[in-house]
Amino acid sequence: MLKVEDINVYYGSIHAIKGISFEVQEGEVVTLIGANGAGKSTTLNAVSGLLRSKTGSISFLGESLAKVPSHKVVAKGLALVPEGRRIFLQMTVQENLEMGAFTQKGSGIQQDLEMVYELFPRLKERYKQMAGTLSGGEQQMLAMGRALMSHPKLLMLDEPSMGLAPILVEQIFEIIQNLHKAGTTILLVEQNAQAALSVADRGYVLETGKIVTTGTGAELLSSPAIKKAYLGG
Ligand code: ATP
């Protein structure tokens, strides 16, 4: 579904992504794990067209994304839930969700809202509440719900567990598992390697802009080198 081949991304003279390649097949949950600054967010931003690669190629459903502007990437079925969530703080929960439906024509929006509220009952209880007054976990749910309103074929999540209390991290990963069971294809970027590898079919390990290891979630979880570097021994 998504094929990334030999991309290189720079910030001025900083070479942040150094020739990485990976792919995501339909129905898979694939995770990119790595320490702070390894290049995980940069990779997602390159896929979603917010940053451009100087080389290589990124194709989605067989079509090159090289010249597709980021707002059109969403219409092609690729939704990014960015790090830090970027929800509209001065709008209500429901208004935020409606903003996620901007690629839809109107009639299905009510149904989509119901689908999101079923997945996140907490948001339903708070549909009139200003998004800025939600807790961190609720804001993450809202950002994910908003992305789902665009009916993504591929959902990209950038550090969904960041800043959340353990109980909320658990809830977010449970939701990721439910989405996986329902057939959603997910590319998950995480520093929480343990949680990410536990829900992922496959994973790639990024170190300073390069992929250094890949394997199934289970293989990476049991690898001594990964345990030592990312799973606290
Ligand atoms: P984190 O989990 O901390 O977000 P990450 O793996 O997502 O880490 P990136 O944010 O992709 O890492 O950063 C990769 C590298 O690119 C880092 O060295 C970072 O300092 C650098 N970088 C990221 N954004 C910029 C920017 N806007 N300008 C210059 N350098 C940047």
UniProtKB/TrEMBL annotation:
CDD domains found in the cross-reference section: ABC_TM1139_LivF_branched
SUPFAM superfamilies found in the cross-reference section: P-loop containing nucleoside triphosphate hydrolases
InterPro entries: AAA+_ATPase, ABC_branched_ATPase_LivF/BraG, ABC_transporter-like_ATP-bd, ABC_transporter-like_CS, BCAA_Transport_ATP-bd_LivF, P-loop_NTPase
Pfam families in the record: ABC_tran
Keyword ATP-binding carried by entry: yes
ABC transporter domain boundaries: 2-233
Gene3D superfamilies (UniProt xref): P-loop containing nucleotide triphosphate hydrolases
GO MF annotation list: ATP binding; ATP hydrolysis activity; branched-chain amino acid transmembrane transporter activity
Example of a GO biological process term: L-amino acid transport
Nucleotide-binding among keywords: yes
Keywords, in A-Z order: Amino-acid transport, ATP-binding, Nucleotide-binding, Transport
Record PANTHER family: HIGH-AFFINITY BRANCHED-CHAIN AMINO ACID TRANSPORT ATP-BINDING PROTEIN LIVF (PTHR43820:SF4)
Family: Belongs to the ABC transporter superfamily.
Protein name per its UniProtKB record: ABC transporter ATP-binding protein
